[in-house]
Amino acid sequence: MPSLLYKSLTDYNSPLFRTQFLNVSAASPPSPPPPNWNLSCRITSQSMSCSSETPLPTLRTVTIPYYELKDKDADLSLKIEEGFGPNGLGILSITDVPEFPSLRRNLLCLSSRLAALPEDVKKELEDPQSRYNFGWSHGKEQLESGKPDLLKGSFYANPLIDVPTNDTYLIQRYPSYCGANIWPLAALPELEVAFKALGKLIFDVGLMVAYHCDQYVSRGMKMRKDEGLEQILLRSRCHKGRLLYYFPAQLRMYQVKYDVTCSNHEENGDSMSSWCGWHTDHGSLTGLTCAMFKRNDVEISCPDSAAGLYIRTRSGEIVKATFGENEIAYQIGETTEILSQGYLCATPHGVRAPKGKEASGVDRSTFALFMQPDWDEKLNFSEDVYIHKELIPSNDSLTFGEYSEMLLDKYYHKKT
């Protein structure tokens, strides 16, 4: 199926746009729009595989070449706005990052080997105290339906620090961040090396993305240097990598599942999140790799063009977002939206599994690095905050640790 097209009607660099819509001279540097500012756009689309579905568009992420990103004098505000601003998808990708393709392949190829370890070995890698946020996790997280997620297994670790703290109180208070990494040193020793190498690279590139986000946000709001996203991430000990393995699909299961989800797609949107439920990352910045698909341990292309990452836009439209195999994608999290007062915006997203006969026996591997504030970083919530308003008192301040523990209560069993 040919690629679907997305094109903004607005040329951000056009002097006509700059003078008539932004009310600035064509030579003036651009500044961020207010958070409720809307641009019109045109989206052309074609039907996906399920005939009963409404047409859905596919959007290519905004891309920034690595050589531009590492230049601190480069003005990337337009691209930051296009990807992360109020009218963006909350995602952009970085191209041509040195060493990334090999580091991605090295780690993703280990996910199936990890999942195939004996059950007693994987049991030793579990950490119930952290609510399975360190080590191996399978069937512990709840789906949107409230049922356990059995479709995928995860391995969590901090790729930068093995032991964030030795403070017993903090380990008990914030076990999902202050616990220690658990590596399969005997069963799969190469996992630690590959996990840390890819995680560190995505973190370093993410800091560059954060620097340019700060330059963009500072044009619209006042903030001290230590309040910027880059500095918040630099001083944090809470970063967490997640290696995901989606187990091979069985044809019958997918036929039954999609017979239901296709017929109910317009009511509940479940078919758009059949592999990973709708959610919005609650951290600051998430680094993502493109998924790797395999059948019988042989790498293949994704067997269904409709499968992949779906995003719900600020206007409520569901779109598919794509980026290249050798690109690192970054998504904005809720914490950054809060601290930037809406200049950088997070979006709900989910992953749709491939369906049909060609999807039988296919597994999927990917990696995400959740870059987030330290557990004691103060988050100030304004009166007009709308994110998780049911959990957060207006005009109140919580630490990131307190905030995230509240959210974990929604998706895992509450701590006893």
Our measurement of the CA-to-CA distance between the termini, rounded to an integer number of angstroms, reads 51 Å
Radius of gyration: 21 Å
Averaging pLDDT over every residue, what do you get? 79
How many domain regions? 1
Tell me the structural class: alpha+beta
Can you tell me the CATH class? Mainly Beta
Question: In percent, how much strand structure appears in the residues?
Answer: 15-25%
CATH architectural category: Sandwich
**Helix proportion of residues, in percent?**
25-40%
Task: Provide an overview of this structure.
Residues 257-373 form the Fe2OG dioxygenase domain. Keywords: Iron, Metal-binding, Oxidoreductase. This is Fe2OG dioxygenase domain-containing protein. One of its GO terms (molecular function) is oxidoreductase activity. This protein has 416 residues and is α+β, with helices and mostly antiparallel strands. The chain has a single domain, classed as B-lactam Antibiotic, Isopenicillin N Synthase, Chain (Jelly Rolls, Sandwich), CATH 2.60.120.330. It contains twelve helices and 19 strands. It has helices spanning 15-20, 66-69, 77-84, 100-115, 119-124, 168-173, 175-178, 190-217, 229-234, 251-268, 334-339, 400-411, and strands at residues 5-8, 41-44, 58-60, 62-65, 91-95, 135-138, 152-157, 240-246, 276-279, 285-288, 292-295, 298-300, 308-312, 318-322, 328-332, 349-352, 362-371, 378-380, 397-399. The strands form four sheets. Strands 4, 5, 6, 7, 8, 10, 11, 12, 15 and 17 form a ten-stranded mixed beta sheet that branches. Strands 3-14-13-16-9 form a five-stranded mixed beta sheet, with no helix packed on it. The radius of gyration is 21 Å and the shape is globular. The model is unreliable at 1-52 and 251-270 (pLDDT under 50).
